Amino acid sequence: MAGDKDGSVMEMDSIYDIIDDEEVQEINSALGDGDLCKAAEKLKESLHEIENAPLNIAITGESGTGKSTFVNAIRGMDDEEEGSAKTGVVETTMEPTPYTHPNYPNVTVWDLPGIGSPNFVAANYLQSVEFSRYDFFVIMSSERFKQNDVDLAKAIQAMDKKFYFVRSKVDSDLHASEKRRKKTYSEEGVLSEIRENCIISLRDGEIINPRVFLISCLELDKYDFYEMHNILEKELPEHKRHIFLISLPNISLPILEKKRQALKKDIWKLATLSCAVATVPLPGLSVACDVGILVNAMIMYQKAFGLDKKSLEKLANKTGIDVSELKSVIKSPLVLRQINKELAITLLSRGAVGGLMIVEYLLSTIPVVGTLSAGAISFGTTYWMLVGFLKEIAEDAVRVLKKALESPV
Ligand SMILES: Nc1nc2c(ncn2[C@@H]2O[C@H](COP(=O)(O)OP(=O)(O)OP(=O)(O)O)[C@@H](O)[C@H]2O)c(=O)[nH]1
Ligand SMILES: [Mg+2]
């Protein structure tokens, strides 16, 4: 795939790279009897639900285990940024403190009070932090898990909520071990020793099949963070998965790919919605669609992949790599342009041929598309345009991340 010099959207390898069987089935059942307006109404609700699903993540554990640092890290923030949780100082919070995600206001990470006091009673603690509002709990420890951690996990389970154990600061353990045992040092060895240790202490506390993720809040892209995120994603209810994926910090290539897939899944909904409401074709095009819906989607992609102005500046700050240098690896002429109606219309007009290809394919697999008359062409063209834009932006996000990872910081 390549955007040509004047910014046209892509050539694709094959139609199957663009639209798969699962999507065809979904479109088929959504369009049902060919009533686009009825289908659009349902899709609107479904999109609204997944984009606005509230996600509340509770971080708990003993004092000093890295809770506040983790609260910042999973929101893609550093500890000194405005809106970040205070770290490093002994700040015994007595109340659960909500920290909103900087880009997604429906995602809140809660920094809960510590559980270290000797007369800690798990059930009372859960009542006092209003356990029912959280989607899941992360119980953090920077050493072996203790009785309080175990009691808390059991009480969470009794309330029918999910919990995950995080063993933080593994970077420090590795560093110390490397210094002290130069000859026999093995990263894998140290990590499996820590894991084993945690599992034993949890099993001793009668936690069956405990799951422990080894993490460094200072280097979130390493160790078990990705695995943890995979498991969380699987275990979240379906309508919360999207926002969870999209709100993750852009710290690793697999995360970028997951984001692309999650966003790609909803393109047919956006295309249907955009075409359902408009009846008058855009001047000079045989496409009738609501361009505003497309512009919003494009802005959302840019933000999700951290290629908007604010995110690039933040990344530059974090890595010490100049914004202009980060931008220099961006290949698509589209990614850095101001996203507005004009850009969307330009892309739609250049996507007409690809749009027809989609329409032809859909007509052969979903005959009901044929009843949409002008809507079918509009659907194909808008769909093609968004897929192309997403592909370009995702590929550039990969280039920018690779550049950022070169940073010595
Ligand atoms: N090396 C290393 N240090 C960490 C990690 N996580 C946190 N820290 C450091 O540990 C110290 C305590 O971290 P906080 O995030 O403030 O811990 P907390 O659990 O919020 O502590 P309280 O609010 O007092 O309960 C800070 O100096 C952090 O920079 C980690 O994964 N690795
Ligand atoms: Mg704290």
Keywords:
single chain; binds magnesium ion; disordered N terminus; 18 helices; 6-stranded mixed sheet; alpha/beta; 409 residues; binds guanosine-5'-triphosphate; Rossmann fold
Brief overview:
The protein is of the alpha/beta class.
Tell me about this structure:
- This protein is of the alpha/beta class and 409 residues long.
- The chain has two domains: 15-31 and 251-405, no CATH class; 53-246, P-loop containing nucleotide triphosphate hydrolases (Rossmann fold).
- Helices cover 53% and strands 8% of the residues.
- It contains 18 helices and six strands.
- Strands 2-3-1-4-5-6 form a six-stranded mixed sheet, with helices on both faces.
- Strand 4, helix 6 (147-158) and strand 5 form a beta-alpha-beta unit.
- Helix 13 (291-304) packs across helix 16 and helix 13 runs parallel beside helix 18 (374-405).
- The radius of gyration is 24 Å and the shape is elongated.
- Residues 1-9 have low confidence and may be disordered.
- The structure holds guanosine-5'-triphosphate and magnesium ion.
- Residues 63-69, 87-88, 90-91, 114, 168-169, 171-172, 216-218 line the site of guanosine-5'-triphosphate.
Major sheet: size, sense and barrel closure?
6 strands, mixed
CATH topology of the largest domain: Rossmann fold
| Overall mean pLDDT | 87
Beta fraction of the residues?
5-15%
CATH architectural type of the largest domain: 3-Layer(aba) Sandwich
Q: CATH first level of the largest domain: which class? A: Alpha Beta
